[in-house]
Design goal:
Blueprint (H helix, E strand, L loop, with lengths): L1 H9 L1 H31 L1 H16 L7 H14 L3 H28 L1 H8 L5 H33 L3 H23 L5 H28 L13 H36 L5 H10 L3 H18 L4 H37 L2 H33 L3 H67 L1
Helix pairs in contact: 2-3, 2-8, 2-12, 3-7, 4-5, 4-7, 4-10, 4-12, 5-7, 6-7, 7-9, 8-9, 10-15, 11-14, 12-13, 12-14, 13-14, 14-15
Length: about 450
């Protein structure tokens, strides 16, 4: 068993996962160090608004409407088939589609900046509200560059350039916190901080375009700008990306709907005993995100060509996630009361340690769900995931309120774990069915040849 594990972690698949994990983990570490300094210099109210601005800049990637994942899918497909002109057409067409959509969103941000600062941020201080309005205008102007950078990263993922992605992100991830900290020593202006962050993201987009072009030039010297934008490719991207977009919209709904019910049913007095453990435990999701980011292009390239190899990578991903999470899950459950007592206070630990432990095991199951979710996407059937999410949501809003009403936050946490367990069974059953169907198809083709 030990030799098998050593062999798994010595191959390129797990090296890519390690680089991907580093890219996600580094900003978390830097943020924990820099946040107290910025909070001290700009004040609690401005810092609260700044955190929302940073979250807003990061979440704007949702406005790619699933086209980025679609680009990764089709770039991988055409690259593996040796259809390099079509591959370049996918990149250019996808970039044009995203840019056209984002320009509309950018205009809305720019011209609605005063409304956003008043209603979304709910800032009463006039000086801070003016700073937020100016920040929204800057975000609107830089948004095309923010989204373009995610497009370039999506192409590099299709090329398996995860080491380059991680190394490229590292300095920008550090500067995303160092620059606001540096400015905070001289000014508390949210506008200046936001401007610096947006300029940084613009430079980041340029750097990643150069890195992406370097990857493309390894297999073809045809210029990206010389290929046409085609309706057929646009149709493929939008059709696949549309389902991905719906899935991306469903995800935050599923993420936060339990909080609405818990707050409404049990009240604000005990709400923190539920949300605080969730916020801490949810950080382990970076392990799953790191693995699945690497797994997706691998599955796209192999499912329809060598489904057994695809299944082998899938099993490696499942084993890797399990091995990484099982230890922290068990240890965390045993020390949860002690940890919460030290971190917050003993009274809080008395109320929240069971919830903390339940979420630990729930996120272990969540980690094992995601590879099946990614397999279904890689098969070119993202609509199946959307259908499962809708059914999942309908059932969840039935049993979650009942369990919360009868058993409080404990019932809500158990309901969340039930949802994870149901997803594990359903998605892996579907994944196995798709695998067997593809295996049967490949065997039939082998016999025919």
């Amino acid at each position: 068993m030990r030799k098998y594990i050593d062999r798994l972690f010595s191959n390129g698949f797990f090296r890519n996962i390690s680089w991907n994990f580093l890219g996600f983990f580094l900003p978390v570490v830097v943020a924990m160090v820099m946040i107290p300094v910025v909070m001290k210099h700009i004040g609690l109210e401005r810092f609260g608004v700044l955190t929302l601005i940073i979250v807003l800049i990061g979440s704007l990637t949702l406005f790619d409407f699933g086209v980025t994942r679609s680009i990764t899918h089709f770039v991988t497909k055409y690259k593996e088939d040796g259809q390099y002109i079509e591959m370049l057409t996918v990149i250019k067409t996808g970039w044009v589609i995203i840019t056209a959509a984002i320009l509309v969103i950018s205009a809305l941000f720019y011209f609605s900046r005063d409304w956003i600062s008043w209603h979304f941020f709910n800032v009463s201080n006039q000086e801070i509200r003016n700073e937020v309005a100016g920040s929204m205008a800057v975000i609107g102007l830089c948004l095309p560059f923010v989204i373009a950078q995610t497009t370039f990263v999506g192409v590099m993922e299709a090329f398996g350039a995860f080491k380059k992605i991680s190394i490229g992100k590292a300095p920008f991830s550090i500067l995303m916190y160092l620059i606001p900290m540096g400015i905070s020593f001289y000014s508390s202006s949210l506008f200046l901080i936001t401007l610096s962050l947006c300029l940084l993201r613009t430079v980041m987009a340029v750097v990643f375009f150069i890195m992406m072009r370097s990857e493309v030039n390894k297999i073809t010297r045809v210029s990206l700008f010389s290929v046409p934008v085609t309706k057929s490719i646009a149709g493929e991207l939008v059709k696949y990306g549309g389902w991905i977009s719906i899935s991306n919209i469903m995800a935050p709904i599923m993420l936060y709907i339990d909080r609405f019910f818990v707050a409404t049913i049990v009240g604000a007095g005990v709400f923190a005993y539920y949300t605080t453990p969730y916020e801490v435990v949810s950080r382990v999701a970076i392990v799953t995100v790191s693995v699945c980011g690497v797994l997706f292009p691998v599955l796209v390239s192999k499912i329809h060509r060598d489904v057994r190899a695809a299944n082998s990578h899938f099993n490696k991903a499942m084993l890797g996630i399990f091995l990484v999470l099982i230890g922290p899950t068990i240890i965390g459950a045993f020390i949860s009361h002690w940890f919460l007592s030290i971190w917050i206070n003993p009274n809080f630990a008395d109320h929240a340690w069971v919830i903390f432990s339940l979420f630990l095991f729930g996120y272990l199951v969540h980690g094992l769900v995601q590879p099946a979710f990614i397999w279904i996407q890689a098969c070119g059937k993202p609509w199946i995931n959307v259908a499962c999410q809708i059914v999942d949501l309908v059932l969840y809003v039935i049993y979650l309120p009942w369990m919360t009403h009868h058993y409080g936050i404990f019932g809500a946490a158990v309901a969340w774990n039930i949802r994870m367990a149901l997803s594990l069974v359903v998605l892996h059953t579907i994944r196995l069915s798709l695998y067997r169907r593809e295996l049967s198809r490949s065997e039939t083709l082998s016999l025919a040849s």
